[in-house]
């Protein structure tokens, strides 16, 4: 049963590892990977000197922290509310409607966003113009995009992400709930003193898993909402994935792209080890290892 998963990681995680050598060379097509001149850490120095590395790291980390923290909180809230619904048909309809955004393509989400936010033909500016107000230049205003991206992500992922927490609640012994009701506990007290403590181990495990990818941005969401070449929005929307995409597809700089990806992996590995150490120190039963 483990063989498919083992093969998956061998093919997609371990066999490509020699390609990390690209981060330490000045790659050219004539000489290939292993004959191109070795430059050591010069590619990393270039990223630091240009200031791109700090901007990319800050944007990616802040977005992922917002996704992880706000996403998990909303998923817990949705799971708890679903559990409190007594009408089965209404619960099923609610779950279905909340799951649907997860299955909508990022390309379609980007198209919807453009039709709403476009300066010339967007729905938002059409409404503002009809009310006698000035249209908004959304695609040249970097300050508002963090809110747009975070809200879009939460809208798309909250319903589907709540499945894990809802399943955890389903594993709660009904006798505990019934005993609390006999003792006079109301719904809010049951949630606070029984349901939320029950969800704590699940929250910690999912948090640790998420922290491992804290430097891995949601390329599909960012690329389709913002695009990879809108320089006016780089300050708040440029993440590591979009930078690597430009390095590979626009500048054809495989060495810089590999250097950024290696930095991304090492940083994520360090974050997981640190977070797991903290969890093990304060709550040993909930640590990963």
From TrEMBL:
In which compartments does the protein localize? Cell membrane
The record's annotation in Gene3D superfamilies points to:
MetI-like
Instruction: Name the InterPro entries for this protein.
Output: MetI-like, MetI-like_sf, UgpAE/MalFG_permease
The ABC transmembrane type-1 domain sits at: 57-275
Pfam families referenced in this protein's UniProt entry, alphabetically = BPD_transp_1
Which keywords fit this entry according to its UniProt record? Cell membrane, Membrane, Transmembrane, Transmembrane helix, Transport
Q: What is the designated name of this protein?
A: Sugar ABC transporter permease
Q: Which organism is it from?
A: Paenibacillus faecis
């Amino acid at each position: 049963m483990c063989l498919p998963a083992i093969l998956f990681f061998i093919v997609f995680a371990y066999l490509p590892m020699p390609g990390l050598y690209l981060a330490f060379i000045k790659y050219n097509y004539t000489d290939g990977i292993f004959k191109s001149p070795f430059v050591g850490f010069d590619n990393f120095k270039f990223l630091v000197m240009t200031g791109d590395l700090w901007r990319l790291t800050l944007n990616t980390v802040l977005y992922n922290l917002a996704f992880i923290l706000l996403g998990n909180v909303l998923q817990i809230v949705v799971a708890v509310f679903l559990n409190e619904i007594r009408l089965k048909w209404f619960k099923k309809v609610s779950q279905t409607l909340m799951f649907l955004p997860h299955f909508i393509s990022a390309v379609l989400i980007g198209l919807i966003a453009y039709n709403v936010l476009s300066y010339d033909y967007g729905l938002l500016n059409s409404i503002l113009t009809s009310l006698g107000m000035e249209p908004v230049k959304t695609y040249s205003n970097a300050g508002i995009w963090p809110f747009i991206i975070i809200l879009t992500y939460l809208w798309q992922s909250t319903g589907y992400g709540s499945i894990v927490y809802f399943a955890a609640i389903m594993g709660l012994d009904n006798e505990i709930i019934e005993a609390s009701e006999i003792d006079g506990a109301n719904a809010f007290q049951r949630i606070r003193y029984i349901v939320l403590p029950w969800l704590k181990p699940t929250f910690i495990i999912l948090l640790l898993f998420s922290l491992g990818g804290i430097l891995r941005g949601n390329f599909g969401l960012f690329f389709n909402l913002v695009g990879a070449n809108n320089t006016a929005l780089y300050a708040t929307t440029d993440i590591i994935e979009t930078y690597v995409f430009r390095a590979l597809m626009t500048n054809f700089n495989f060495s810089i792209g590999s250097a950024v990806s290696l930095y991304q992996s090492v940083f994520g590995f360090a974050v997981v080890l640190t977070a797991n150490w903290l969890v093990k120190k304060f709550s040993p039963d909930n640590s990963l290892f």
